[in-house]
Design brief:
This protein is an alpha/beta fold and 562 residues long. Helices cover 43% and strands 14% of the residues. It has 17 helices and 17 strands. It has helices spanning 44-62, 78-87, 91-108, 124-136, 212-222, 236-250, 282-286, 291-299, 311-335, 339-345, 353-371, 376-381, 383-399, 404-427, 436-451, 455-470, 474-486; strands at residues 9-12, 17-20, 28-33, 66-71, 140-143, 146-149, 186-191, 206-208, 225-232, 255-262, 265-267, 270-271, 307-309, 489-494, 497-502, 513-514, 521-522. The strands form six sheets. It has a four-stranded parallel sheet with strand order 4-3-9-10, sandwiched between helices. Helix 5 (212-222) packs across helix 6 (236-250), helix 9 (311-335) packs across helix 13 and helix 13 packs antiparallel against helix 14 (404-427). The longest helix has 25 residues, at 311-335.
Length: 562
């Protein structure tokens, strides 16, 4: 690495403390993240999890590591089979379709593709081999074509979660199954049921239990000992606890050095989950808001803290995103006629101490805050905003008459600050592959859709307001402006013309996304009233409780697992 950087610290769920990250193999990192069960469209709990781990992936690459990132698909499961039966569809076809839908959502959210995306159905040999090894080592037993893990024969069970088996009473948290030696034994292999997909095995036809798949696939792609394993907090028990038991029972040298878990998502301060039905799919949100606005919103809370999804908060995130890209576009427009001269005549120009301090602070804060357990809110709320303020101040200075060297100094500073900002946005996954102007237009189109208006409607309102003002009907002009502001459309008088931009609605009256019950419902809630400024600096609220369970990785143990 070219220069010394802060030591990267991650909170380890196993030790319950932050630890300095040290990879097993210098310069290389192995990461396994539990993926979705592909039977439905993904919800914002999935977005929360995979945006967080995408930032981890990006930051590890930023630090110069060679990263092998594995994220699986569970493509055979009770939920998939039940959903396929409900729709009269082949389970494999249904699962494949929702895998593709998930990948489309992740692309919209600018989550980088993992190195490997294994599917359970492609790894039956590895799964059966691991089960056989567990049985051979005395931690598994077969009953009527099923194979169960024996928790009594694994004394370390409960190490990650801190739970003790004696703390639970049979029948309360798990279904009593007389085939099990201990009520808390869990399924490694399930005997085939009529009409369900199955694979041949030494114990008879059947399919894997939920937990074994991740143990087998992580070992296959990353070996039995690797650096980081992650998922939602609700996967700590039983999924990750069972993974540890299986992996160590099959291979005593198995070890994950860092267990990391993201916090829950709530909707309007109520726990969000598929089982309750008050969840939003990613599509329902991105139908009305730019995908990067959703990503910005999620990054506004530390990944381990609960995050509360509400329309008012996604509105604020959307406006913040517009401010970012409008400032970058303004900077690009101002620099366009000056870049060539800066390259030829600006070599002797020096960046002012204030500009250099801004650049250094942004770089330093970015590296320091991400190194502190990926603390993204601190970056969005402080030095990044300060850098945009500096750009706007510098742009105002450029409009004034300057001496040539002073002008070149400002131009040079703007070029350097823009570059540093883009590096930060890229590492956070907030830098679009589209142009600044294209993103601004996308944001405006989403705003029009939320408002139930067209560009022509807004243009007509602007003309009507101009006519009212010309006729000195100022109250009518104010009424038109207020009506549009209530719908999230802000009118701004610039010189002799009037332009518009999206804003946080002053008074919500039009529909937006409401939690899905039996059918998707679209409705806007009453928002936080925001005063409108010409270019407001909007900061996301950090760590204001707001919970998707995994469910958050769409993983749930079925009753047969319990």
């Amino acid at each position: 690495m070219a220069k010394e950087r802060p030591e990267f610290q991650l909170y380890n769920s196993m030790t319950k403390q932050k630890e300095i990250f040290k990879p097993i193999v210098e310069g290389k990192v192995g990461v396994y993240i539990c993926g979705v069960t592909s039977y439905d469209l993904s919800h914002i709990g999935h977005a929360r999890a995979y945006v967080a781990f995408d930032v981890l992936y990006r930051y590890l690459k930023y630090l110069g590591y060679e990263v092998v990132y594995v994220r699986n698909f569970t493509d055979v499961d009770d939920k998939i089979i039940n959903r396929a039966n409900e729709r009269g569809e082949d389970p494999k076809a249904l699962s494949w379709r929702f895998c593709e839908e998930f990948l489309s959502d992740m692309a919209d959210l600018q989550c980088l593709l993992p190195t490997h995306q294994p599917r359970v159905t492609d790894h039956m040999d590895q799964i059966k081999d691991m089960i056989a090894q567990i049985i051979s080592n005395g931690c598994g037993y077969a009953v009527d074509g099923n194979v169960f893990f024996s928790v009594n024969n694994f004394p370390s069970y409960g190490l990650l979660s801190g739970r003790k088996l004696e703390d639970n009473r049979a029948g309360e948290r798990v279904a009593v199954d007389t085939r099990k030696r201990n009520p808390f034994d869990f399924a490694l292999w399930k005997a085939a049921k009529p009409g369900e997909p199955f694979w041949d095995s030494p114990w008879g036809p059947g399919r894997p239990g939920w937990h074994i798949e991740c143990s087998a696939m992580s070992a296959h792609y990353l070996t039995h000992a690797f650096d980081i394993h992650g998922g939602g907090m609700d996967l700590i028990f039983p999924h990750h606890e069972n993974e540890i038991a299986q992996s160590c029972a099959a291979c005593p040298e198995s070890k994950v050095n860092y267990w990391i878990h993201n916090g829950f998502v709530t909707a309007n301060d109520e726990k969000m989950s598929k089982s309750v039905g008050n969840f939003f799919t990613i599509r329902e949100v991105t139908e009305l808001y730019h995908p990067l606005a959703l990503r910005y919103f999620l990054l506004g809370t530390h990944y381990r803290s609960p995050v509360n999804y509400s329309i008012s908060q996604i509105e604020i995130a959307s406006e913040s995103l517009f401010y970012i890209y409008q400032t970058l576009q303004d900077c690009a427009d101002a620099l366009l006629p000056l870049r060539e001269e800066s390259e030829t005549n600006g070599k002797k120009a020096r960046i002012s101490p204030a500009a250099q301090e801004c650049i250094n602070k942004l770089r330093s804060d970015f590296e320091t805050k991400l190194a502190d357990d990926l603390h993204t809110p601190s970056i969005l709320n402080s030095s990044l905003i300060e850098a945009f303020r500096f750009i706007n101040t510098s742009l105002n200075m450029l409009k004034k008459k300057q001496q040539k060297q002073q002008q070149l100094s400002i131009v040079k500073a703007l070029i350097e600050i823009e570059k540093q900002i883009k590096d930060v946005l890229d590492a956070l996954g907030l830098l679009s592959s589209s142009t600044y102007n294209e993103v601004l237009q996308q944001l405006k189109l989403k705003a029009l859709k939320r408002a139930g208006l067209t560009e022509e409607d807004v243009r007509h309102s602007i003309e009507e307001r101009m006519l009212a003002r010309k006729n000195k009907e100022f109250s009518r002009g104010d009424e038109i402006r207020s009506d549009l502001a209530a719908k999230g459309i802000a009118l701004m008088d610039v010189g002799s013309e009037t332009v518009w931009r999206p804003c946080v609605p002053v008074q919500q009256e039009q529909p937006a996304v409401q939690p899905r019950q039996e059918k998707p419902v679209v409705q806007l809630e009453q928002p936080v009233v925001q005063p409108q400024h010409e270019k407001p600096v909007v900061q996301p609220q950090e760590e204001k409780p707001v919970v998707v369970t995994n469910e958050q990785a769409n993983h749930h143990p079925s009753s047969a697992d319990k």
